[in-house]
Amino acid sequence: MAETKPTVTVRLFTVLRMLAGEREVQVEALNVKEVIVLLVERFDSKFQKMLLEKDGSLKHYFHVLINGRHIRLLDGIQTSLKEGDIIAIFPPLGGGY
Amino acid sequence: MADQAKPEEKRPPIYHTFDRYARQLLMDGWDQEKLARSSVLVAGVGALGTITALDLVLTGIGKVVVVDFDTIEMSNLSRQFLYTDQDIGEPKAVVAGQRLRAANPDVQVLSLNRSIQQVPNTVWDEIDLIVDGLDNFEARRWLNSLCVQKKKPLIHGGMFGWWGNVQRVIPFQTPCLECQPLIPQERLQKACTPPGQRRKTEEEPPPKFPALLSVATVIAGIQFQEALKHLLGIGKALDNFLFYDGLYQRFTTLKLAMNPNCFLCSDRFRIKGEIFTIGRGESITELKNRLIMTFGLLDPKIMFRGRLLSDDKILGRMRVKKKEPIFVNDDSLAQPLKLLIVIK
Closest by alpha carbon to B333, among B308, B305, B311, B300? Predict the structure, then answer.
């Protein structure tokens, strides 16, 4: 029997939202890595170029939070997901300039 | 031009006339006297800071302290409307102070032409709330650390191009800026370079980011509004991380979680002290690198039994008692981090 994957909501912010043309999407994924793959498949090459390095890894400065918790404090992109999780992805914002 | 190093004597507001505040006095829940008894520090008088400082002063906050060590440049003038062409090269804090005093003589304005880390304790002690308009991450982390230490509310704001964000930090009630590692990772990577190389990197001019007055006005306006509600004790405070997208005109909030392991505001560190395991042969250099990676510190210095430890020392060979404390100092911390060490 095929494994049932949890449905999670991905909220995109700033430049990612601009490139995706959508504020949030729902995807079925077991972990953050799968979410990233699904997003890149869904949106165009500009989105991929913005989010990923040439080697396919997530650009280090992007923040990924699951229910308000940074994946750096969890298991990184291998962090497992559960039904209903809210994932936020955004680049760092600056200062008072 | 000199700054006002010594805080002026506390004096009651002048109130030339209440007519100045006639319209806001009509607001439900308004208490002008309460505002007149309040003190707010604005950290950084760039785009965000000049706007919030002017808002605070015009509204009749009793005392406004503006802190900045920078001087005015031509490229500031498209956003920082307290300054003019004639001010180029002058200290921001001093010029901002002059303009703010002229804007409302009721308000006591203190200008400090210095870095935020050099603000004296006597000033911090009388501040009720801090507004963050800083433009560098080290200073921001230090300020957050200080706010946690002194239990002072902090209204943080940031912007980049069309986008901005606001976060309200009430120490031990809402997540502090370290609870979730949102400080750009480049800084961590930069911090991992050896000290010599780091110094060389710091001499490079800071990167230039896109910035727009309209976004600054929105973000600073929200910062001011959150400050105002806090001082008046009315309304519903911002309890999430707020994003603003000026290009598509959207506000979005994101719930941030407090971190039970936060090295600044969690009970685990603050009250009990954190146990930190050190290898028997681990040198201070190796330990420093681990501290940089674990806590995102910049250039930690380690104090043990009242002395700074040099990089060649090895704690495992110093007859350390179990859970004996070391104190870690860093430019991003307003107070040393206490760790209880166990040698293994």
Answer: B300
* Helical spans, DSSP H, in B69-162: 92-103, 121-125, 137-150
In a shared domain, residues B282 and B334:
yes
Of B254, B281, B316, the domain-final residue: B254
B119-131 tens-digit pLDDT: 999 999 999 999 9
The pTM of the full predicted model, rounded to 2 decimals, is 0.86
Kindly give, in sequence order, each residue whose CB lies less than 8 Å from that of residue B162, ignoring residues fewer than 6 positions away.
B212, B215, B245, B246, B247
Model ipTM value: 0.85
CATH architecture, range A7-90: Roll (3.10)
Q: Assess B135–A contact: CB distance below 8 Å, yes or no.
A: yes
Within this chain, do residues B292 and B181 fall inside the same structural domain, yes or no?
no
Nearest Cβ partner for A94 among B79, B160, B186: B160
Which residues of chain B lie closer than 8 angstroms to A14, CB-CB? 160, 163, 243, 245
Minimal Cβ distance to A73: which of B189, B209, B259? B259
- Verify that B332 and B199 share a domain, yes or no: no
Question: Among B152-156, B185-189, B274-278, whose mean pLDDT is lowest?
Answer: B185-189
Whether B212 and B328 share a structural domain: no
Count of residues in chain A: 97
Domain residues of chain A, as ranges? Answer: 7-90
| Closest alpha carbon within chain B to A87 | B254
